[in-house]
Amino acid sequence: MKKMGHCIIATLFLVLTACSSLPDFYGNNTGNHQYMDDRVVTAKVRAALIEDPQIKNNNVSVNTYQGQVQLSGYVDSKAERKHAARVAAEVPGVLKVKNNLVIK
Prior knowledge:
alpha+beta
């Protein structure tokens, strides 16, 4: 009977420790399994771009898939293109930015 009790305890220990190191939604081993919906990330990136005074063109399209943000559309300068990517990258939940913005 003692042997069976030890087996059960050992099994529970293994199951609990294995679950604590499972990767989160994005494959990161954070242990806290945080997940931010792509729609939320997209909305936050759009808001950050609209609110930023250095980005003159508010017609930048934002798409997000599994935390990877894609920017597309037209901007006036190379500096504005770089700045838009930097602004997007600073938004919580953004893992990577693919900058497809084209300079007019």
